[in-house]
Fold DUF1697 domain-containing protein.
Amino acid sequence: MSANEGTVFVALFSGINVGGNRIVKMAELKSFFEDLGFTGVATYVQSGNVVFRAKKGDAASLTSALEAAFEEKWGFNSRIMVRDAGWFERLVKDNPYPEITDEPTKLHAYVLEREPTAEEAKRLAEKCTGPERFEIKGDVLYLNAPDGLGKSVFANLIGRTLKVPGTARNWRSVLALLEMAGKAGG
């Protein structure tokens, strides 16, 4: 299939394969996308990342269709963030912490359902009292957690405080997905 047949997207799943719950095998997820008619399907690590090509539809319509089909197949809801390859390129280019990209476990990108309001961002900033730093650019929250995400008290507060649904990926995953999206488009 030539690269001009469709747009390359990345789907990020939240809440699957965490702590032994809601198990979805990546091979089954790949088949699920192929059965829905998508091409160039590739998965990355168990947290649920899928690169695929769609002939029609935009991120919003694909998100709705995928969430509905996923729930029908697996019997539970997973919030899915669908973004196109160009969006991922901007995410990497706009990284406010280029000095820590060589320590990818200390840099995370939260893909948010929408851009937080100024009030929501302010509320979150008030909770950021530890070693972490964050910056919000559009619908991405960049988090620098110097001690790693697992030890970050602040990271656990992000979802509850911001109240904007999202899903986090470490920088290694972000770069891998961008590379996969580039290959799928070429």
Q: What stands out?
A: The longest strand covers residues 7-13.
